[in-house]
Request: fold
Amino acid sequence: MAQETEMRAKKLVHEGSTIHKEKPFVYVLSSKVRTEYCDFCMKKGKFLKCSGCHYVYYCGKICQKDAWNVHKFECRNLKRIAPRTLPDAARLLARLIHILRKGGDLTKSYYLENCFRMYKDLMSHYPNIKGDQQRMEHFTSLCAVLFDFLGDDSLPNSAELMGMYGRMCINSFNIIDQELQCLGTGMYLGASVIDHSCNPNAVAIFEGPILHIRALKTLQYLDWSEIRISYIDVLNTTKDRQKELEAAYYFLCQCPRCLAPEPPEINAAACPNDQCDNYIDAESASANDKCGKCGAAITENFLELFKQVIEFTDIHLQNMKQLAYFDVCEICLQKQRGVLHKFNIKHVKTLDLAFQSSIDFQKWDFARTYALELVDAFHKYYGQMHPITGLLHLKLGKILVFEEKDAFAFDHLTKAYQILKITHGVNSTIFKEELIPLLQQTRMTVPR
Ligand SMILES: [Zn+2]
Ligand SMILES: [Zn+2]
Ligand SMILES: [Zn+2]
Ligand SMILES: [Zn+2]
Reply:
């Protein structure tokens, strides 16, 4: 018997297999999408408004009924504070308080047959939070909101509340849809065991609020201490990734990618000779240096221009953190042309925003151009086996189908197929309902 268990544990894990599936311990739908998605199952569709609070929407009676267990305690209060609304973090914390009070502290979430995690196993990072001015300000403002929302009696003491806040900050997942748009936030007790890597071997994908951890690489057997997902967007320099992880999760990332030297193009200038694809390390270059490949002169003016364009780009990337503006992206890209190397991370980030905003404005011509430029950069920085790379090929394929360039579309859809079958799975909605029909449509018209 023991041998049998061991055999099962040592079984080969194929890339693309789901190694863990879990319901959230607590979650909330983002208020930004609250009228478009069901508050319970997070599906898009026709809606029924809660007649108590007039605030939350459900896709139907079944979801409304299933949601009531948690919603009943907040419904009356949501109505009372209207027209004010509750910030998402406060709503999540209020739900956490309620769930713990109803015995949630005894919930066991299994990630293996005999391994589980409970609420108390989550790290609270109490001292870190206490020393973090930004988080403490956020916490103080949340306390005031919660006091108003729940009343003094139902509020735990402040140390307990801060423990909850810390666990929420450190262990929350962004719940994303299959196109990676954020729909909400949730805590998953079992999956919180998984550590971070900037070069992960697994990925978190969601079906509604249900979390799926999928293997991106074939593993000899399932060893949880070796499973890594990425907590952040890895389209960044090592320094910036480490800074972000340290600020949000209080650890210095020492993953193999962070320890390895960076690609030299990541901060580089383009060669001033537009026929040459070499990169120029502008930080160490001085006037009168020459391009190592074509011999073009690096002038003082060129180095000064590079500095200006980087500063200009920095300001606008910072301003567009919440919302990208197509015109601003275009201006940045014009300035970057011939000055920043095509793999310069700031150029890639600008292109990415330009691509997203051109899709929002249905400027397909621009979207196609940007996406084609992004392909190599995404393969370089995200890697081939990454949901973002797969989705780029899918979106590009879709645009090309729309433009009736079917043969070309077929190439990108085929690449999307190879990636999404691993990252999302053949049973995912995006795979079955978007990719497959598009592939069939182009396959029919592509000359053989
Ligand atoms: Zn629903
Ligand atoms: Zn309600
Ligand atoms: Zn790292
Ligand atoms: Zn050159």
About this structure: Residues 271, 273, 276, 278, 291, 293-294, 296 surround zinc ion (ligand 4) (CB under 6 Å). The mean pLDDT is 93. The longest helix spans residues 61-81. The chain has two domains: 9-231, 259-445.
